[in-house]
Amino acid sequence: KAGVTQTPRYLIKTRGQQVTLSCSPISGHRSVSWYQQTPGQGLQFLFEYFSETQRNKGNFPGRFSGRQFSNSRSEMNVSTLELGDSALYLCASSPQGARTDTQYFGPGTRLTVL
Amino acid sequence: AQSVTQPDIHITVSEGASLELRCNYSYGATPYLFWYVQSPGQGLQLLLKYFSGDTLVQGIKGFEAEFKRSQSSFNLRKPSVHWSDAAEYFCAVGPNRDDKIIFGKGTRLHILP
Question: DSSP string spanning B41-95?
Fold first, then answer.
């Protein structure tokens, strides 16, 4: 089975722009979670989608949003980028949900905001 | 509130030496416990997990972890490390009252030749 794929792998944006990141889960996995990883804060949960519905959400401002499509692929969007949004964004998929399942992580998208 | 602590930010061991990475948690009941590893430029990979049953859990790549309820710990061990084990290791616990898995800040493992 192919693993979790994320595109693009690297992005450079400027403050005020918006960005969309994409995640394709492992085939058959219905849950997709997004995390922000930074050296200072570590791994922080953004949100989880399951069968096209947001199941859970972390403590991030409304500039961060996501969605999931019927084929379980997911996108996250960050509007009005700030310097502090520079981070590695990781996507993880699991068969039934992040709360107890093993999560399979993609390689991440490295976002740099200038 | 539920939390997970990895007290060591960096650990350096010699190749062939034994390894123990510490993980302590604060949780009201018996949690689900995970150890993940992240190699440079990669996502996280599950090493092992504990849900219930035998408190000594075997994982991939020769790793094991022991759940000690009395100490609220879930330390990761390996009897003999290899240079390829150099990576960052994350302990995770959950689900918390918000139904989320919480990750520790990570321990970066360095291997001396």
Answer: T--EEEEEEE-SS-SEEE-GGG-EEEEEGGGTEEEEEESS--GGG-EEEEEEEE-
